[in-house]
Design a protein that fits this description.
Elements (H helix, E strand, L loop, with lengths): L11 E8 L3 H14 L4 E5 L2 H9 L4 E6 L3 H6 L3 H7 L2 E4 L7 H6 L3 E2 L6 H8 L7
Length: 130
Amino acid sequence: MTVPRFYEEHVMQHTVLIQDPDALIRIDLAQTVLDLWPDASVILCKDAQQIAQTVAGGVRPGVLILRQSLRGLRGANLADWAAASGARVILTGVDDGEAPSIASLGWSTLDMPFSAAHLRRVLQPGCNDR
């Protein structure tokens, strides 16, 4: 897990939390994010427990890229937090039939396998720097 370059109590638009159990995928996702937002602070987590520890420490990411299903987020007690966080949420581990529920939350999905170009297209609407 990396340490954010800056810390604020509110949602940090340029802070992206990436969770995936595979270290190489986490690194690849982080590189794609940094290609779009070179000044971003990227936090890497391997599982839901690390996500919970990170947000318990006061970090409020502006973007969450999670290899979780909606069911998995609910099971880890993170779905309500993610919905209330104000962050853009992108799920990459969606279960069949979850897409309507995820869309109703205003979240995005990426079906595995996906390319860096797919991720950039999903992230692009949020690329406006402050």
